Batch of 2 targets.
Target 1
Amino acid sequence: MKFNRRTHTCGELREENIGEKIVLNGWVDTRRDLGGVIFIDLRDRYGITQVVFEPNYNSETHKEGSKLRSEYVVAIEGTVRKRPGDTTNANLPTGMVDVMVDKVILLNEAKTPPFPIQKSGDVNEDIRLEYRYLDLRGEKMQKNLLMRSKMYNSVRNYFNDNEFLEIETPYLMKSTPEGARDFLVPSRIHRGKFYALPQSPQTYKQLLMVSGFDKYFQIVKCFRDEDLRADRQPEFTQIDIEMSFVDQEDIFSMVEGLMVKLFKETKNYELETPIKRLDFHEAMERYGSDKPDLRFDLEMTTLNEVFKDAEFKVFKDALANNGIITGLLAEGCGDYTRNQLDVLTNYVKQLGAGGLIWMRVKEDGLEAPVAKFMSDEEKQGIIDTLGAKPGDLLFIISGSKTQSLSIMGSLRLEMAKRLDLIKPDAKPALLWVTNFPLLEWDEDTKRFYAMHHPFTSPNLNEVDKLDTNPGDVNARAYDLVLNGNEIAGGSIRIHSADLQSKMFDALGISKEEADTKFGFLMNAFKYGAPPHGGIAFGFDRLAMLFANENSIREVIAFPKTSSAASLMDHSPSDVDEAQLKELFIKIR
Amino acid sequence: MKFNRRTHTCGELREENIGEKIVLNGWVDTRRDLGGVIFIDLRDRYGITQVVFEPNYNSETHKEGSKLRSEYVVAIEGTVRKRPGDTTNANLPTGMVDVMVDKVILLNEAKTPPFPIQKSGDVNEDIRLEYRYLDLRGEKMQKNLLMRSKMYNSVRNYFNDNEFLEIETPYLMKSTPEGARDFLVPSRIHRGKFYALPQSPQTYKQLLMVSGFDKYFQIVKCFRDEDLRADRQPEFTQIDIEMSFVDQEDIFSMVEGLMVKLFKETKNYELETPIKRLDFHEAMERYGSDKPDLRFDLEMTTLNEVFKDAEFKVFKDALANNGIITGLLAEGCGDYTRNQLDVLTNYVKQLGAGGLIWMRVKEDGLEAPVAKFMSDEEKQGIIDTLGAKPGDLLFIISGSKTQSLSIMGSLRLEMAKRLDLIKPDAKPALLWVTNFPLLEWDEDTKRFYAMHHPFTSPNLNEVDKLDTNPGDVNARAYDLVLNGNEIAGGSIRIHSADLQSKMFDALGISKEEADTKFGFLMNAFKYGAPPHGGIAFGFDRLAMLFANENSIREVIAFPKTSSAASLMDHSPSDVDEAQLKELFIKIR
């Protein structure tokens, strides 16, 4: 299996190479047999070059050429020729030339692939994942992983240029379940004890700030043992960032510089900064989402003021319970049929809404089943507040605040789809969402959970409310949103051991539990912790959006299925009893 | 806890800043109280700046300055001043100026650290690891991790410049114990099944070659659940490289380019290439090691020829059993005392040698207890072959080949230490060791194991011997050695499914077992696998050598102890019964 190493890649030959003796190595992409002359498109990562087996030129190699099949791996020795007459191919960078084959060495045969290499897009994803090594050979996955590779490089150069240190944090760490579920790793040396894989390097990067490293970044795998949705993987990649002696503004400007560079180097797009900002509470009221898609308008409007004296029981109750009445104007949709409206009503009901109020705007006012429950003043109020015109349709949802706004936010996205509001050439819409609530209440466990994570700093002027009204405290937390997707989230952290204790109190975490789980961090805060903050990007999702794909699996070389399995190597798998014995565990 | 953000770092102020109003943020490094004036060295990652609290200048801040203690975190507002008279400090880049303090804001207090931040070198390592966040604050660890961060950058830029793709491979993979022990991760979704953490991304990178990615690299964590020696960690970092359509020469020249860049950018040292090469068998005979330290000579010499007709039973037996008689000349050591010689004899005995033959070279021949068993011709043969002169000492060890050579190799290193042969300014000695045996026999399990790994290609002209005499087959494998440390190892891989089967046969791995463990790889080889090969660097060890440290823990931010525990966060730790229940496991 000796072979002649290539002198050129398959994407390299040009007219200036004409007459040269060259060697190519690659895969047989296609083979055409035209009147005794065999044309093969030879493929490698860099491109395609046409090689020609002509019986008159070399009858020996022509015979061998006739044995080649798709995906065979060959070394070709030959002479570069200008393609005759009108056979040049302007679509191919190498299309002005081809190679007359002097010698062919078969490096490896290939069975017929289970799907055509260049057309795996139509193939069932399970088959693609089983034969991932072939799926990756196709143009799409080659392009996506090449782009992803360039993105790593842009990110790292950016942080290196800005004097960040890349520091690796441990993968075998302590299990501190507070948030998602940990993946556990049994210890062989310490019987009955376990490591956990990191859900994020959060505590480590904060310790690095205590150590004075000042600016840290890492592109790092993280792990969450959650039930997978379409867009999740048990292991995922994070761009992890932390800085000392900063506030929110420093994080924003550092990240905006990164986004400018990434958009320029990956998409050749000149991103304008500063990136727009929106308070969480405003984002919820206007877009019904903490990650609004701003590629289109279609804003929601709160109608509480209009209905402040409402007789209509549904609205009256909503207001009495500190809830919300939110409206959405669908311009020009006044002709929606009853059937269309039923579909939308079902859509919001499935999301948990009690119902959907719709009203057609006519020349003479509002036409709707519920119109009779409203005063003329209220009807005019709706029209004025939403800016409705005859021919428009409008929706109203009322009830508890968060739920009603979220459901209307979903309806907003649904209407955008139906109205085709997101144009293929829409500019990327980036947005900072700020001032998130610090805590969210969980009805099941009757306790507060940290909305971001338990190390997030409350707004400094709201710290006192932690004791009296913790649910109202907002946080120095922020998300970066791209086209309606959260691509990064972060916060200014607590750097005082006292405030951190207070936070654990608010979360109902006892002193003992806090000490067992996070004692080392609280301890570290006592030895001179600087003010610090950071952010983390979901790298897979960012790459997915840059590649215009709908699933992160399209930008991950070897992803798992939604049941966290690999169809290629059949992991997870059985292991030997001896292995378990050494780890002091057995299967229940 | 509002604070004034810095306008400058603590390493930045120079004479041109004199008169400027500036803000610094940092830690109190030292405090001196001189005649009522307080001098504080304020420290951050970038350097140290002296700040001055003078009662006449500002009595208010002077009072506050007097409360500051070591490691307090402060924001200082002040005015840059030329240091008066002879108080400039030429050792400090900022030493021409200091800062008259106008205002001080205490950002955080600090308890007295358990050890002085700048003198952690003398501290018990367990204490350093428990308070790692403070240990990392010291100059040494700051310097080491800064260097390591630069090394990542050099490595990645090199591979990006050479058109390698960075591709992430999975951390949750299939357990295929063949070599070291896997760390296992129980699956929650698939009852009784387990993932393994990667010992290396070996199979994945080979699949990427099958996919046509051509040149791959990754800096990646790997995991081995082995009993730890001083220089091992359960998780370690690898620079992982794989290339298609290459042979050994391509790998060598690519890696040599990397080493030139790394030495230049990290050590400002101009490395000369090509790097010296040595056949494994020759390395063993001349240096008694597959990773010889070539910073000094002190070569071993095989004396089999001298003793081919030996009467001396020890030598006669060694030769009869296909063993070796190896000699080492210690120049000028003829005056070693009997006591010194006993110490050396014990040294080799502890390594498993039957004994150590030593001979003093005198004007009138060799003086030694065993001299009487040798003919004059043999004695002269020793002197001639080793080039011994009066006043020298020589050692002979005989027995089975590998063991005797290894033991003499250890004695060579020991003598180098005693003779102080490794000079502090010795040039770094790089070496390729090539042509390793493919297999090594294990007496315990009575089977062959792959010396490198089971995917390593045998020398192509030795493939036939796989059936007849597998122990004699050599491999297309190579190690890169720096100053007696293996820093990288790799091989040209098998890329034919048939040859891979043959290899599994030689290893005594049944078809069923091979199929269960590596079926996906063997399958991939059937669809057009290109010739390929690669190499992997132990990044921790490389960084350790570059930092002139003796332990990889000195270049890892948060290392584990030799019992694989973290003294800082006390992992591994107990976990909740509920967590185990969800994973379908229990503790034995």
Target 2
Amino acid sequence: MPTYTPPTKDQQFLLHDVFKISESDIPGYDELDRDFTAAILEEAGKIAANVLQPLNTVGDTEGCRLENGVVRTPTGFKAAWDEMAQGGWMGLDANPDHGGQGMPHLINTATGELFSSANMAFQMYVGLSHGAASALAVHGSDEQKQTYLPPIYEGRWSGTMNLTEPHCGTDLGLMRTKAEPQGDGSYKITGQKIWISGGENDLVENIVHLVLAKTPDAPDGIKGVSLFVVPKFLVNEDGSLGERNSLSCGGLEEKMGIHGNATCVMNYDGATGWLVGDLHKGMRAMFTMMNEARLSVALQGYTQGEVAYQNALGFAKDRLQGRDVTGVKNPDGPADPIIVHPDVRRNLMDQKSMTEGGRALVYWGAQMIDRAHRMQDADADAMISLLIPVMKGFLTDKGFETTVLAQQTLGGSGFTKEWGLEQFVRDARIAMIYEGTNGIQSLDLVGRKLPANGGKAIMAFFEMVKTFIKENEGNEALKTGFLDPLKAASKDLQAAGMYFMQEGMKNPLNALSGSYDFMHLFGHTVVGLMWAEMAKAAMEALESGASDTEFYETKIATGRYYMARQLPMTATHLARIQSGAEPVMALDAANF
Amino acid sequence: MPTYTPPTKDQQFLLHDVFKISESDIPGYDELDRDFTAAILEEAGKIAANVLQPLNTVGDTEGCRLENGVVRTPTGFKAAWDEMAQGGWMGLDANPDHGGQGMPHLINTATGELFSSANMAFQMYVGLSHGAASALAVHGSDEQKQTYLPPIYEGRWSGTMNLTEPHCGTDLGLMRTKAEPQGDGSYKITGQKIWISGGENDLVENIVHLVLAKTPDAPDGIKGVSLFVVPKFLVNEDGSLGERNSLSCGGLEEKMGIHGNATCVMNYDGATGWLVGDLHKGMRAMFTMMNEARLSVALQGYTQGEVAYQNALGFAKDRLQGRDVTGVKNPDGPADPIIVHPDVRRNLMDQKSMTEGGRALVYWGAQMIDRAHRMQDADADAMISLLIPVMKGFLTDKGFETTVLAQQTLGGSGFTKEWGLEQFVRDARIAMIYEGTNGIQSLDLVGRKLPANGGKAIMAFFEMVKTFIKENEGNEALKTGFLDPLKAASKDLQAAGMYFMQEGMKNPLNALSGSYDFMHLFGHTVVGLMWAEMAKAAMEALESGASDTEFYETKIATGRYYMARQLPMTATHLARIQSGAEPVMALDAANF
């Protein structure tokens, strides 16, 4: 059975040594000192390790069942949900006016990491409910907010997002679900939505569905889509539950992983709903929350990597096979633990360096979201908008890869259900697909975010890297191991951007054919930046006489591994990009 | 539900256009003309597509059950087994003296591809039985061969290999299973073996277990291991079945994939067995068949890639989402098929170019095995021994990667059970682990095969590449797209070998830390060589006026994609290798 230990020390290192959050000018950050975040991470860690983690295998094995229209979640999920609700974790970063705790998004991200590592399928119920609430918090009327938000943040109700239909996922302009105005301000919603996570469940009293649909006279395509709130039970004026709405769960998807989370087919049969925000602006309402939603999926990538790595490491320290080529390490045993072998270390270091780098990137992203939301900082908003597809696409690809590496550490045991590694692989796989496939992320990056405002955000990124390098060039310890490789990666990224500008201008296919590689090239570069910043912080801690020298030295060594062994991928991505569209587009569709 | 179409044309292209097998000097190849191989591939293809493929989902869903000591295979497996047995497929390349068909191993490989793509879990019963028979055919006494081989090749009996024990897999020197001589030439075998594929099953009347065990006075470690044949039912002199032997299946492993194949815990409780080959030479007996066994796993990599690619391609042609940026392709439909989008093509071309390259490599390997076995050609034996870890490690990593890419082509549908792609991912995953994990393959390559005979085999490989490039340098069409990238990759491979020689001499960890990257660097280079040879053959066919110009042009374009987009990975692998052991080994085990 797999285990999970909350990586509190690594989290605290990022929050305080690297990002020095309590010194930040972001409103609300001043109270986030070491003791405060230690206390909150400890509480969240207890729930993660003691309540959620033990249910992870249960959820995978039992899965969800649809019984007479009701989805039964796995044994223990309801009790865990209630415990999290009572702890106030559902609305940790939500507005206190609506029953939230008012914390920064960064804190919700750091605690969410723990829940997600412990039980991704369970945490999806929490996270998606939170996402729906956030959309309502921005676009809903005051009445809608007062009606729906407090019960969601109290954990009495949950929320869902309904976008996909059988014939349209990425291309939502093809949507068929109809919303007919009833003259009383309400609409009748009719259509089928699929892949609705938690669309029906037995955790809560009521489910608040946010549904994209088209009104009869709506413009064609994506511009005719509006957003509606459609509760499972209609709500009386006093907040009590009224009659059952005309919607139902028509089936559960059988899938590769996240079995503990109910993936529902939702049928709306003239269900009563109300417009959220402006008519025909449904996509905009959805996209408002996109950065937050995609950051939470980016997080899933490294959180599955983290728990998989922990278990691979445990195995590598325990399993005795073969002898260290440089000399026996375990003379009293029949063999040495496999962690002595260089190729096992290569595998573990790939896992460790990617996971810790991913965490740094996501925490940085959460701070930019706080800066954008709490300070209306347009530069932060532009930077996070540029980086979100990179974070989502790169970190979920790498998170999945990490779980596969961790599984490999265990050899044959990794393939068995008993050790649990294979579940991490199956669960992590979905993160590359939902909230916009990683291919779509790369198109969003290259087609939309990169050229936005004349490339202002990417220029700001390069400037940031350049400044960091310049400011630290005198630091010899940092220079060879970190700044030089970062400079090389950044140069590759600039060359790729230049290629897109020049050759994409002649033929857009030259840019689009390289979008996926660009996303990865960017991902490596920005994780390289994170490692350079972590190394700098660790060196400063050592210089200032920090007692835990091994911890900081380990950070530096892990970072050096990333720079030496992971960052060279940028050269290959650049070469792929510069080969252009011709090899990609050479075949007629019929000749594949 | 997934589909499978035997890729007969691609197979024939390799056998005749590229490898020109009927002109080969390998005994038995002269009769392998186009018509002959077409006929045999067609027959095998029918079984694959009509009998085995429909059972693939069944096998995954039902799995195997252990009932009162008997393993029940999934519905339909027994009938399929009998049909294959009646067709003579069980001993296709086995010695006619023992009931085989006497075909070259190449033909068994080409037909095995079809069975493996159609149903990997099923084909494992056939393949592992074949492997056990091959070991007996080489090391067994005449009496053992006459007793056990004909019923196995007739499909009345099956065979297994018993190596792993709970506490030892890679390090078989730790083995505890005991073999006590009984004075009558027989031994009593006692111990537990795990992960025994098909260790118990309801397909056959008897199961012939090959078991590694230690005699009481055996030397310590791997040198004390002997090989025994231990039948489920003892065999009477007339070949009829006698009493039940003291061995049993103690349980089935629950695992990530290949559910249709029973992974058994086997308990030997003083079971009667007989020595195979020489005392204490059990490992040598096992290793004799290693090249063949590992090639068949290499094959599993690209065969799962092939069937996954076929289904991804079907989806990409059907699914309508978005519009071609260069102009609408499907004006009568609501959207264009997603194959118009560059990033979908990038994904498909990665799948296609790797799968076809992998097939070429495996077919080349099978010919080297035939050359080594049928002509006692020591050079061919040295070359295949060098390349086997590359084929097994690289092609199974890439095969798995291909199934993941194919799954991604389907977006959300790829994650559902309904479309079947996720099964290919789960099934392909095991090939990276069994028959020696891919990490072990890389150690075998760098620690054993590379330095063998003063590096004679790797030198011969470089010479082969050099000669090919030199002979074809006048071919302008080949030069830019194929020879130049091949030369660059080969140079990277040489630089890596040089690094190992120089720095590995100073510190063996410098070589061992780069072993995995070297395996991949080698893999890309040799698949690059395969593509250059395929492109040359396709160009020759076009020049000689072949009618199917689109087929050959597609080959060339697919090859150009590989050279432009996959081969640049060699630079990254070289950089990782040249960073040496320091970043890999920096941490104390306690500091991970």
